[in-house]
Design brief:
15% helix
């Protein structure tokens, strides 16, 4: 249990200054956590980089990667869309909202019509 300060001499932290020292700003009241006196040139806030435009247009979430081997159950001539992949259970509906990208190094012999982003 934390020691209660300023509740009499018998409490162990009571009496005259109750563990705050004698004088000064910290003894008298609260000081803001970022306050460093008047030294503006070297203050913590001035040391932080200016991040105004950094990453402003970066995509929030990357698309879900689907391996091309997972498409072997589809019939030739099928249109590969988000709805089809969700219906076949290849991806979940929750992940489909992020978008998908089909990747893979293996050869794919089926004739499919892709309506989603695909790697070269």
């Amino acid at each position: 249990m934390a020691k209660r300060v300023g509740r009499g001499y018998g409490s162990g932290k009571g009496g005259h200054t109750t563990g705050r020292g004698q004088k000064g700003q910290k003894a008298r009241g609260s000081v803001h956590i970022l306050f460093e006196g008047l030294k503006v040139k070297k203050s913590t806030l001035k040391k932080l980089p200016l991040l105004r435009g950094k990453g402003k247009f970066a995509p929030k979430q990357k698309p879900v990667i689907v391996n091309i081997n997972k498409l072997k159950d589809l019939k030739p001539g099928d249109e590969v869309t988000l709805e089809l992949l969700v219906r076949k259970g290849i991806i979940s509906a929750k992940l489909a909202k992020l978008g998908i990208k089909i990747l893979g190094k293996s050869e794919f012999k089926k004739d499919l019509i892709f309506k989603v982003p695909v790697s070269k």
